[in-house]
Amino acid sequence: MSTHIGAEPGEIAPVVLMPGDPLRARWIAETFLEDARCYSEVRGMLGYTGTWRGRRVSVQGSGMGQPSLAIYANELFREYGVESIVRVGSCGALTDRLAVRDIVLASGACTDSSMNRIRFEGLDYAPVADFGLLHRAYEAARTRAGGADVHVGLLLSSDSFYSPRPELTARMVEYGVLAVEMEASALYTLAAGHGRKALAVCTVSDHIVTGEETTAAEREKTFGAMVDIALEAALGA
Ligand SMILES: O=P(O)(O)O[C@H]1O[C@H](CO)[C@@H](O)[C@H]1O
Ligand SMILES: O=c1cc[nH]c(=O)[nH]1
């Protein structure tokens, strides 16, 4: 067991899909994996290991926000030898180029968090996706997107779901940011620091410009196309 994950050594696969919502983790395990078994219920942050097309894969909830994700990603990389983490998350569209249920493959992730500023003592680090995972996800999206439009570009990983400074988000959009979520930047940074691989594949759950939104149940159980893309990218031939 690590501090926050109740798995024995060897119980977690080298490839991990990581939704923020632990109930989305359960849905992914029950819907997409064979022989899925729950390895951790610590704090309700569910984790499962099963197989997909005969290959072992785990699904681990991260919780919301970079500090929470960093706990799980650090323990997976350091204590369970995980090689790749693919975040399968929801995000809010910041531009009318995106529609609800579109999918974003995050080539990089900006942030308003102080985590990297502290890590790099004020220098600006650019957290980016593993190119191999990103390339395979892009290829997989040709057949696995289920009709959704797929965009490759920048996310904003914000510490605030309810932004106190929307004018700064607008400036990010002027510089190409597509959507906002709360974890990808820390995931990319931690993967790089550990010499491992990471990608964030996010479905647009709500639209900051139009106000359109999905329900909690839809965010938990209906974003299957991003899971198909993530599995193909991480485990496909
Ligand atoms: O749906 P998940 O994967 O949790 O992702 C998004 O949803 C949460 C906010 O509602 C944040 O964690 C954000 O990043
Ligand atoms: O962090 C998030 C996730 C989904 N939608 C948002 O507006 N923000």
Automatic annotation (TrEMBL):
Domain Nucleoside phosphorylase positions: 15-222
Gene Ontology process terms (BP): purine nucleoside catabolic process
PANTHER family in UniProt: FI09636P-RELATED, URIDINE PHOSPHORYLASE
Entry keywords, A to Z: Glycosyltransferase, Transferase
Family listed: Belongs to the PNP/UDP phosphorylase family.
Single GO cellular component term: cytosol
Species of the source: Nocardioides panaciterrulae
Official protein name in the record: Uridine phosphorylase
Domain of life: Bacteria
Catalytic reaction(s) noted: uridine + phosphate = alpha-D-ribose 1-phosphate + uracil
Gene Ontology MF terms: purine-nucleoside phosphorylase activity; uridine phosphorylase activity
The protein's Enzyme Commission number: 2.4.2.3
